[in-house]
Amino acid sequence: MMRRVDDSSDEPSTPEKSLAARKSRRRRRFGWLRRLGIGACVVDAEDDDEANSTSSSSCRSCAGKPGKALDRVKVRPYKKRSKELSAVYRGQEIRAHKGPIVAMKFSSDGQYLATGGEDGVVRVWRVVEGERPDELDFAEDDPSCVFFTVNENSELAPVNSSEGTKSKQDKSSKGQADPACVVIPHRTFALSQVPVHEFHGHDDAILDLSWSKNGDLISASMDKTARLWRVGCNSCLKVFFHNNYVTCVQFHPTSDNYFISGCIDGLVRIWDVRKCLVVDWANSKEIITAVCYRPDGKGVVVGTITGNCRYYDASENRLELESQVSLNGRKKSPLKRIVGFQYCPSDPKKLMVTSGDSQVRILDGVHIISNYKGLQSSSQVAASFTPDGDHIISASDDSRIYMWNHVNQLAPVTSRVKTVWSYERFFSNDVSIAIPWNASQSRNSISLACNIPSLRQEVSGDLCDIQDSSTSRCQTEDCLEDDNMFRLPSGNFTLSRAFLAESAPRGSATWPEEHLASNSATASTLRKSQYKFLKASCQNAATHAWGQVIVTASWDGHIRSFQNYGLPVQV
């Protein structure tokens, strides 16, 4: 079949017919790869014309300014009691490649993003700190939410919207948006507006990418090679030749000198990088569509087009078949092809398997323990764990990004497979890949655990008698001195002094109530409502996705970023 597609000898005599024939062969080839779940869904000829104007210079001109967008994305929960992606904002959009982006990976330290696609170019983007948006723009743009800012000391302060915001809320349709408690971080995610590297050398589409723990990058291509690159070096370091399309690669997790590759010829190979030689190989007798090392590097799991997962012992870089799991049963179908693997960051015994039948399964050893459903069409790319292992992110062919809560679904292992239907999703035009930013240390210092100040420390909803207001203010500040901490899973934040001072009742015991300034009363009421919303959000937060960054690639060659600033809310 491959020879029939690639070696067609009937060349038309005119340039127009020649161009049409090349596009026809290109569509047939990629259509065949798509059925295998290996390659991209390549856009039609109209997109080719648009892509021809794209170059590294167009990347510069089309890149958005980091952190400036305030476009809130509508997130739809399904069968969930709380929404964790309660305030997702769209960030940058960069025209990165000619045609579809097929592979995209963050480096192990989260400092670089590599992309590769149909144009055969590997581009590397640096993760930078974006400009912090103006918090008043948030409040005026979306008056349905309560807004806070957090500084580098993890101190919260409320955002005061202008008096015109209320009238704007009455007139604007955005006032009907879903309410949320929004915490605006002091740092935002962004990518460099131009790539720091453009690696040329492949003669055909990139199908997979893998970073080593020390920052080397390997790319797999339809030109029957894998190539080694390094940040800081513009030329290719090594070329690893195969007999056919290289569908998947992964570096050894503990040694940069070895990587594993999968190929259409059915062979899985372990390569010695320095010697540029195959150390060992195994024949799966099926087209290989995914490979993955165990976190300790002593084992390998291989996925095939028929839905088989083959477990190999890889000690001493020698492959010995241990067991095999079929996700397809006795029926062999391309829809059950293995699209990708990933071991859970919080539990290395758990393996996530994405298959072409729109299902994401969790395996413990050779046993399926849970099944995540909801994707509306067949899966072309693998799902990904968030860095803490709490959530699963995946793109779907229906131009939507899905997120499942993984940690809340953990249960004692039983003989019954747990099926999870609850998820959240949002739209991203023409999305092909969605991955979370893997720099968990950089998700700012906020985390959520339900440790909320008691009612006596609340800047109370029932304000103390105005006659005792001055005493109450002192007591409130003293009480909150040591116990005003709101905890969210990986850290905590506190109420700022400004928040406390403006929340407490104003005036002295000798002032009559009618002499209190009206703006003070308004400010106090505002702080009380903000505080209650914040408290409710934290109480809902067994887990949270605050600060989560999701980066997407699209079939039309764009990179887009999304960041969640919202705390969990009940739905």
From TrEMBL:
InterPro entries: WD40/YVTN_repeat-like_dom_sf (IPR015943), WD40_PAC1 (IPR020472), WD40_repeat_dom_sf (IPR036322), WD40_rpt (IPR001680), WDR44/Dgr2 (IPR040324). Residues 53-62 have a biased composition (Low complexity). WD repeats lie at residues 94-135, 199-239, 239-274, 384-405. Residues 1-26, 47-66, 157-176 are annotated as: Disordered. It comes from the Eukaryota. Keywords: Repeat, WD repeat. PROSITE patterns: WD_REPEATS_2 (PS50082), WD_REPEATS_REGION (PS50294). This is WD repeat-containing protein 44.
